[in-house]
Amino acid sequence: MAATLRYGVIGIGSMGRHHVRNIRETPGIDLVAVADPGGDRFDVAGDLEVLSDVETLIDAGIDAAVVAVPTVYHERTALALAEAGVHCLVEKPLAGDVESGQRIVDAFDRAGLIGAVGYVERCNPALLDMRRRIADGQLGQVYQIVTRRQSPFPARISDVGVVKDLATHDVDLTAWVAGSSYARVSAETAYRSGRDNEDMVSVTATLADGQLVSNLVNWLTPFKERTTIVTGEKGALVADTLMGDLTFYRNGSIPVEWSTVANFRGVSEGEVTRYELAKREPLRVEHEQFRDAILGTRSEHVSMREGLEALRVVEAILSSASTGTTVNL
């Protein structure tokens, strides 16, 4: 493999254009081809010809590709890249359903290629530091994880609902931060905007290690919120991933002498610390991880198998909402 990896991007729309920019700015990789049957509506191709499909992208002689086409086309595109021996970063979710995702995973396993999924939240500085602190025991035993992901409707979405487009982020980051998997889920969805797919979801879940989980997601809120709260025996860590901020609320150590308050609170309020973090663009970190996985220098990327597990949980959420039952995983 060449010292500088040759990259292609298929799908240069709302998300793909950001991949194009970050690839061009990441050392060790060279953008040599882009493809999009819809053309270059964001004018990001520069001197590159906008190719028509994945086959012409492969013909450009690429080592790796980013797949940022609509979810319904993920399987066909990824399988073509696997057959051609091209490493692949697929935007989340991995596929439209578990069966399709499994075929993608199997193809990349057989080919011995790096297959990654674009769960960019894992590269957010606040969540990276949160996960490290939890692993180091700062919270002690973790009791509960709460995520809130709310915003207006993104016009770019047409083929999936809020569960597969947004809640999939929360499913992945919850399991990753906790170092545990979803054991059972119960969910409710709502259709409030007249579109075919759900636009609100409320998930209550339990992880395999016993942590309680709440994932609240919608795209009908007139403001944007991206918050993850992890509560444990020693306090709580709160990540604002919009700003990349992480705050620690420590349980108090000073005895509460006001008995009524002490009985009500259970724990007292201690010091509050907002950490100073190096804030790098998460998508840049994601591309560095993918590059390094291809080169064999580290393996911090989100694997396709992890993407498949998130898809299993997402489908369990939709099943629970449609049947009104709790789904065991």
From TrEMBL:
- The record places domain GFO/IDH/MocA-like oxidoreductase at 129-237
State the signal peptide span.
none
Domain named Gfo/Idh/MocA-like oxidoreductase N-terminal: residues: 5-119
Q: Where are the transmembrane segments?
A: none
> Which GO molecular function terms does the record list?
nucleotide binding
Q: Which InterPro entries match?
A: Gfo/Idh/MocA-like_OxRdtase_N (IPR000683), Gfo/Idh/MocA_Oxidoreductases (IPR051450), GFO_IDH_MocA-like_dom (IPR055170), NAD(P)-bd_dom_sf (IPR036291)
Look up the domain of life of the source.
Bacteria
Name under which the protein is recorded: Gfo/Idh/MocA family oxidoreductase
